[in-house]
Amino acid sequence: MQAQSQSVSAAQLGNEWPLRVASGKIYCELGTRYVFEDPNGQRWAINGAATGPYPAILPLQLDNPNPELACRPDEPNYMTPKMSLTPLFDIAEVQCNRK
Length: 99
Known about the structure:
Layout: E1 5-9, H1 10-13, E2 23-29, E3 33-37, E4 43-45, H2 86-97
Antiparallel strand pairs: 1-2, 2-3, 3-4
């Protein structure tokens, strides 16, 4: 069964876009794995459930120039000055909740 996906881009998310690449696709796999596919086809883990099959997305995350856009305390890279993955996480969550 093919996982559902949704295209996402910096143009859509504006200042909340957290990645070094301008666009990609978000997948939900097995109902719990949140995955981002970059323009080169490399897939990255957005959440812990996807870590293992896929590398953590940290190398693609932009540095956080704005404290208001900081990672939430429950995100794994909270202590690093990186942009929050919340917008991507939210899109993946919608994908996982579609039947």
